[in-house]
Amino acid sequence: DRWEFERHVQRRRRIYARKRKRVAEVLRGLAVDARLSGLDSGLSVLVELGPETNAERVAKHAERLGIGVVPLNRYCESVETRRNALVVGYAEPSLDEIEQGLTELFA
Fold first, then answer.
1. Total Cβ atoms within 10 A of residue 88
2. Count of CB atoms within 10 A of residue 32's CB?
3. Neighbouring C-beta atoms of residue 70, cutoff 10 Å
4. Cβ(71)–Cβ(33) under 8 Å?
5. What is the rounded distance in angstroms from the CA atom of residue 28 to the CA atom of residue 75?
6. How many CB atoms lie within 10 A of CB 71?
7. Main-chain phi, psi angles of 70, to 5 degrees
8. Rounded to two decimals, what is the model's pTM?
9. pLDDT of the residue at 21
10. Mean residue pLDDT across the chain
11. At how many degrees (to 10) do helices 55-65 and 95-106 cross?
12. Does residue 105 contact residue 93 with C-beta atoms inside 8 Å?
């Protein structure tokens, strides 16, 4: 019924809001030189890394750890639009998995 669907959507929004908040808290707590964007929408966040951290290397390290992050450059058509950033999805992992994965990745 319609109300069940609306309750489901509201529940998911609250869950995803907690996950977004956890991503931001963990990265800030790890003192990662990064700027976060896209926190207010979608099911992923863009993590723009500082110049001393290479997004491609971090993504390869993440793959070895079984953590799903994607370098933003994989979505760029030209060299001019490339940025040193990662797309970090948070829809599937639990709050604990988000914290553990980001800690393993950036510690």
1. 23
2. 19
3. 17
4. no
5. 26
6. 22
7. -130, 130
8. 0.84
9. 92
10. 90
11. 120
12. no
Distances (CA, A) of 7 to 1, 3, 19, 21, 87: 10, 6, 19, 21, 29
Greater confidence, 48 or 107?
48
Q: Structure tokens of 31?
A: 């003192």
Structure tokens that stand for 67 in this block: 């953590």
Give 78's pLDDT tier (boundaries 50, 70, 90).
Answer: confident
- Helix, strand, or coil here: 25? helix
C-alpha distances in Å from residue 32, one per residue of 14, 56, 105: 26, 16, 11
User: For position 77, what pLDDT does the model report?
Assistant: 79
**Arithmetic mean of pLDDT, 72-97:** 88
